[in-house]
């Protein structure tokens, strides 16, 4: 094969553009830094709650503010800003996120914490778009998406273990956020390996492409699924405490759950082409509901462990199939750019909606609510399939 033939074969993997392996890996890492907080929330927010910096309601507000800000930041960068000067954008966003993490470490009030995490979320969302914009340009978006969630979860798993065993016991929640800030600063080196300009995707009438029943139901199904996980994840420590499980043990569960997420993401990457996305999303939604019901039933330590590990596995196993769902709903791939926003809005709305059901120190309604949202995601998939069949897309 000649050099030109090799280049053509490689570019065949991309709808537009032809990034090198290093450039792709760098973009995926930058996006992963933006999502580190997703795996670390139970450890860091749990520490803030244990240290008395926030109440249960304030904990939900902090988590919600950051998740909504990530969703807004990713949507703005992906939908409204051109994919140009990505190295400088990555650099500025990393510095901004490092500042927000340092601010969080020394914030003296719940209002300051909310402000710091909102700023962090906007920067994190922009970093996520650095990765998702490139993924959307791939002909193998599902597989590249699988690589993305695998990379980010490996990083989350390693950091969660470091924070739970070393940083938080030694320096409290402040130590954890300082570690996050240092990771951002170290990642500045990687930012300059990102492709500087992404080739343009056709974006004519992009909002019209999303404002259709198939696209809306697909994105709502994704949102509801992540509401399930967001509700349980944000309150995992107080749920465990209600059933006699200490915070350190929950911290270890978080790290183990993140390891299970890595396995789930890798498994989905291998099997994503062999399993129909509709079947996968339906079965995973049912499993999510069962795990939530188990957490609400007053489980012992072994059942709590099992539920946490299963939820970790299915969380990222489903992502490549959700990407396929979005591509099926909108072949222009505009909806794919909004998948992270749908996921993050779900993670944001889950805790705040569940917090409205909490009665004093009784957190049992949280997993009950999570079960309902998991089943809602399956029902919305059913609506999508019916509508898509009428339009000949499924």
TrEMBL record:
Record keyword Membrane present: yes
Protein's UniProt keywords contain Plastid: no
Topology of the protein relative to the lipid bilayer: Multi-pass membrane protein
Top-level lineage group: Bacteria
Pfam families in alphabetical order: MFS_1 (PF07690)
Location of the protein in the cell: Cell membrane
InterPro entries membership: MFS, MFS_Efflux_Transporters, MFS_trans_sf
Bilayer-spanning residue ranges: 27-49, 61-83, 90-108, 114-135, 147-168, 174-195, 207-236, 248-270, 277-297, 303-323, 335-357, 369-388
Gene3D superfamilies, A to Z: MFS general substrate transporter like domains
Keywords noted in UniProt: Cell membrane, Membrane, Transmembrane, Transmembrane helix
Main location: membrane
Listed PANTHER family: CHLORAMPHENICOL EFFLUX PUMP RV0191, PURINE EFFLUX PUMP PBUE
Protein's name in the database: MFS transporter
Organism from which the protein derives: Mesorhizobium humile
